[in-house]
Amino acid sequence: MAEFKLKLRRYNPETGEAPYWQEHTVELEPHRSVLEAILQAKNNEDGSIGVRCSCKAAICGSCGVRVNGKPGLACHTHLDAALASAKDGETIVVEPMGNMPVIKDLIVDMDAVHWKKIQRVTPWLVNREPVPEREYIVPRESMVDVTQSMACIQCGACVSDCLSMEVDPLFIGPAALAKSYRFVGDPRDDMQQVRLKDLSEDPHGIYDCTHCFKCIEACPKGVAPMSQIMRLRRIAGNDHHIVDRNNGDRHERAFVSLIRDHGLLWEAELLPRSYGGDSWFGKFHPHAGKELLSSLPAITKALLRGKVTPMGALKPHDIPAKDLEQVQRIYKTVEEREERVEFNLYISGKDEDLLPSSTATEEASA
Amino acid sequence: MKVAYWPGCVSRGFTPELHGSMEKVAPLLDIELVPLDRACCTGAGVIAEHSQELADSLNARTFALAQQVAGADLMMNICSTCQGAQGECQERLDASAEYRAHINENLAPEGLEYQAGIANKNFLWVLVEEIGLDNLKSMVKRPLTDLRVGPFYGCYIVRPTDRLGINAENPRDTYLEQVIETLGGTTVEYAGSQKCCGFPVITMNKQASLKQAGTHLADAQDADADCLVTPCPLCHLNLDLQQPLAGPVVGRSLQMPVLHLPQLVGLALGLSPKELGLNKHVVKPTAVVDWSTSVVGAVGAGAGGW
Amino acid sequence: MPEVDDAKLHEDEQRLKEIIERPKTGRRVSEIKDELGTTMNQYVAVYREEEGLQKAHEVVRRLKEEAKTAYVDDQGTVFNQDVLGAVELGYMLDCSEAIVVAAIERKESRGAQFRVDYPDRNDEEWQKHIDISRNGDDVPHVSYSPVTITQWEPEERKY
Ligand code: SF4
Ligand code: SF4
Ligand code: FES
């Protein structure tokens, strides 16, 4: 048994008062969870503490909160670990999740945000026609491929800290987009193209993710929503050639071909191409012109300050010709493959995980 | 120490002062830079988004080139995004001998091969883990006394924590603060220090992108920072180059200089703002330059004028 | 959704109001719940015997009384989990008593019940259901009903 200092963010909508902090001291073994600590405070000291929970075993997804500023499951966060991440070294701070309105104390309105976004992505299978008389027969690998997105328990931890959602509340967000991959990746689903077109064209869809890794870090189930979003982009662009109005696909294509052609990034060319289209002419496209005009103050200032010399901006940086040839050969080899090669650690695991433990320890001590 | 040095693209393109300042600072820290001139862009996550195999192959090629640099202690980059993009590829390459063999096949025609386990560190990590803070402190010529610096990490160098080796032993998500303090400066706490600068969506959702940059800059301004420091040139683009556009989006008048990490180190090691390319920034680092001249003035007076 | 008549709704509302307004003189809901859990775990898990079961029954009866005055901290109407806990406690006590009474009744070992004092299975007398029904606030009423055997003949477990 050890004592732990718990600081809870409380909020009661009926009093009309602002949220406030409340401290409790609880006594529990260090391997017990933050949820147990909250419940002990609730049971012994103040029954009005609001916190959702059910399974206490990281299965039901009810107990999403922020512990010391980081989103996660209260029942899946050990007290000793929470103490170790305490900002002042002694107080475990528990707050409701972010990006969702607080209903009371640690309880947020999942309906208003999380579930609405899940509904947005048609979270069910639309049968591929013709529907077979008995079950669909699909390759085993294709189902293994979607297990990662199926592992989601809808806790909302990823939604809580999504940095795109923070500035654009309309962003469909990590959990819902991971859910949509679950069906896009399912060979029985009939709507791959429709789903992807929809998610690419939506200004708050797959191209609105700012690649911040917050959702990967937050998810207690290893769903890695951001990786699923990248796979959605990959399939949308490579397999369905969807050129979206958000410049997402154009940007990706421009980037990839600039590296192919020059080895290094040529920013002055990337921006206009992202807006106009992936060729040297792209920058003369009307979209590109409009966009450049609106960033002109920034660019001319950069020129004036001598940051970007006209020559530097206009001339591509290249790597030596022989090396560029190598790079282009690698491009060719990979792009000519009939099937994409992808290595997913979630599914394959690491080599060392497969070693019998005796060998692993031997190696470690060697 | 000798490092296989990967400067990245942006540090030689839109933010040339980054590569420039690193070259100035390296000899003062006794770092010998062996540039990986033959390597290509890491893909910044975008190539991986297009094709994982392509990104892994291109970066394996860079690692293989780095492993050929005789006598190098490790590979070093000066760009968080490079660190993150390369780290992601390395994680896959190191995880499986079979997958590594497959990728190495793509390098074989030129006789290159990546061997698992390369040490690839951002300059920030090199400062703390290789050079050491005590050692760094002893090299400081002009402590950043009274300079209030807001650390801006961005995303790629702090998340995901396990891939980046952030743990109790190596709290790499606190290194910027540690370096600022070691150089004699004052760390400014503000909300955005580990949030996204918004750069990745600048072409897709400009409003959202500028709102991110603007919010963090305004937060730092409200916390009375004199400047921000970042280990990522892409963050620098959104925070500095785009600052004139970001202000109006958040309804604020912003005037927040943003320094590259080697520039901040260089200032403390006695280099002049001009040598470090501070004049190349879009937002004039007036506060920083004024600070440095006043310090020089003071030191000059005390030491009989140098 | 089934129709609910207003009188019933009103009754339930009153019941909740009564719980919320209880003076803080009785025991805490969580305390009773805790004692109930500990008791059930101690005496009414897999290994059971008459003496323990009787003890458990006594405790459950007492807790049922105490539950009537158990108080809650939360007086609000938004997400009041406290009052929900008090309501649930009533059901928990009902279920616990049904379990205890049935366990005392069944003087044999079968399935998940191992009666230390009756270690053998006794098909002759006990191959039947025990039905428990509410009896106001009193000890529940016990009756029996026959077991319908379909495809699988019940057999003694030998592992
Ligand atoms: S990576 Fe994308 S989806 Fe995930 S939290 Fe960041 S912005 Fe949101
Ligand atoms: S993806 Fe992970 S963090 Fe997000 S809701 Fe699902 S389980 Fe929770
Ligand atoms: S209580 Fe079910 S996930 Fe935490």
From TrEMBL, chain A:
Its cofactor is [3Fe-4S] cluster; [2Fe-2S] cluster; [4Fe-4S] cluster. Residues 4-98 form the 2Fe-2S ferredoxin-type domain. Binds 1 [3Fe-4S] cluster. Binds 1 [2Fe-2S] cluster. InterPro entries: 2Fe-2S_ferredoxin-like_sf (IPR036010), 2Fe-2S_ferredoxin-type (IPR001041), 2Fe2S_fd_BS (IPR006058), 4Fe4S_Fe-S-bd (IPR017896), 4Fe4S_Fe_S_CS (IPR017900), Beta-grasp_dom_sf (IPR012675), Helical_ferredxn (IPR009051), SDH/FRD_Iron-Sulfur (IPR050573). Its EC number is 1.3.5.1. It catalyses: a menaquinone + succinate = a menaquinol + fumarate. Keywords: 2Fe-2S, 3Fe-4S, 4Fe-4S, Iron, Iron-sulfur, Metal-binding, Oxidoreductase, Tricarboxylic acid cycle. Residues 197-229 form the 4Fe-4S ferredoxin-type domain. Pathway: Carbohydrate metabolism; tricarboxylic acid cycle. Gene3D superfamilies: 3.10.20.30, Alpha-helical ferredoxin. PANTHER family: SUCCINATE DEHYDROGENASE [UBIQUINONE] IRON-SULFUR SUBUNIT, MITOCHONDRIAL, SUCCINATE DEHYDROGENASE IRON-SULFUR PROTEIN. Belongs to the succinate dehydrogenase/fumarate reductase iron-sulfur protein family. This is Fumarate reductase iron-sulfur subunit. It comes from Svornostia abyssi.
TrEMBL record, chain B:
InterPro entries: Cys_rich_dom, HdrB/HdrD_reductase. Coiled coil: none annotated. It holds the Pfam family CCG. The keyword Plastid does not apply. Keywords: Oxidoreductase. Residues 3-84, 152-240 form the Cysteine-rich domain. The keyword NAD does not apply. This is CoB--CoM heterodisulfide reductase iron-sulfur subunit B family protein. It comes from Svornostia abyssi.
From TrEMBL, chain C:
InterPro entries: Fum_R/Succ_DH_flav-like_C_sf (IPR037099), Fum_Rdtase/Succ_DH_flav-like_C (IPR015939), SdhA/FrdA/AprA (IPR030664). It comes from the Bacteria. Residues 34-159 form the Fumarate reductase/succinate dehydrogenase flavoprotein-like C-terminal domain. Gene3D superfamilies: Fumarate reductase/succinate dehydrogenase flavoprotein-like, C-terminal domain (1.20.58.100), succinate dehydrogenase protein domain (4.10.80.40). This is Fumarate reductase/succinate dehydrogenase flavoprotein-like C-terminal domain-containing protein.
